[in-house]
Specification:
The longest helix is centred in the C-terminal third of the chain and has 15 residues, at 155-169. The chain has helices spanning 13-24, 31-40, 44-54, 61-74, 89-98, 111-119, 155-169, 171-177, 191-205, and strands spanning 2-6, 27-30, 80-83, 103-108, 121-124, 130-132, 147-148, 182-186. The chain has 207 residues and is of the alpha/beta class. The protein starts with a strand and ends with a helix. Helix 1 (13-24) packs across helix 9, helix 2 packs across helix 3 (44-54) and helix 4 packs parallel to helix 5. The structure holds adenosine monophosphate. Adenosine monophosphate binds at residues 9, 31-32, 35, 52-53, 56-59, 64, 84-87, 91, 152, 161. Adenosine monophosphate binds next to helix 2 and helix 3.
Length: 207
């Protein structure tokens, strides 16, 4: 089974992915995480991608498709969640040619709320866990590592990313809707409310 998670940056795609992974055994494929790992390891892809990510822009579709094909070769038989992919209509069409998308889950959050959440979003420099922290020198609740702000979570980059999302990724909502393949969840409330909606979707899909 393949699920696509759609939503603006900071809408909670990573959060929902972790929940689906922990509770339902999904394999999590995040193009953003894969690219960040390449940046950390200073691979050719990482060196190429670093400046693009820092500007809040998208990597070219062919580069992303290469990453996805490599991942899919490793996880042909798993239940996969695609987090942050596809991000353009072209990517969605290319995904269609290589895998069946059972459902796209669109995580809806008002932009004003996203901007507030992303401001306090931090990532652990050691284990990579994402957390919300208002403290200046917060520590990771999982491993005690240092919490840092992603460069692309800085306010000026976030507004650029939201614009890129509106222009290039939001049209995918209509794309999957037109295939009767879209379910919307509301992430403007509590975590319990969000996860109850996710539980219902997974239950309905496994019937
Ligand atoms: P994310 O962690 O999903 O927000 O991704 C971080 C950054 O990686 C994005 O702002 C893009 O620069 C790049 N990126 C991740 N996924 C894609 C994709 N599917 N297409 C193009 N660029 C991507």
């Amino acid at each position: 089974m393949n699920l696509v998670l759609l939503g603006a940056p900071g809408s909670g795609k990573g959060y929902v992915s972790s929940y689906l992974k922990q509770n339902f055994g999904f394999n999590h494929i995040s193009t953003g995480e894969l690219i960040r790992a390449n940046i950390k390891n200073k691979t050719e892809l990482g060196i190429y991608a670093e400046a693009i990510i820092a500007r809040g822009e998208l990597l070219p579709d062919d580069v992303i498709m290469k990453i996805i094909k490599q991942e899919l070769e490793k996880c042909q038989n798993s239940n996969n969640i695609f987090d942050g992919f596809p991000r353009t209509l072209n990517q969605a069409k290319m995904l269609q040619d290589i895998a069946n998308v059972d459902m796209a889950i669109y995580i809806d959050v008002p932009f004003e709320m996203i901007i507030k959440r992303v401001e306090s979003r931090r990532v652990c420099a050691t284990c990579g866990t994402m957390q919300i922290s208002q403290e200046a020198n917060g520590k990771c609740e999982k491993c005690g590592g240092e919490l840092v702000q992603r460069d692309d979570d800085k306010p000026e980059v976030v507004s650029r990313r939201l614009k890129v999302y509106s222009d290039q990724t939001a049209p995918l909502i209509d794309f999957y809707q037109s295939k009767n393949n879209l379910i919307k969840v509301d992430n403007s409330g509590s975590a319990d409310y969000l996860f109850a909606q996710i539980d219902r979707i997974v239950k309905d899909m496994s019937r």
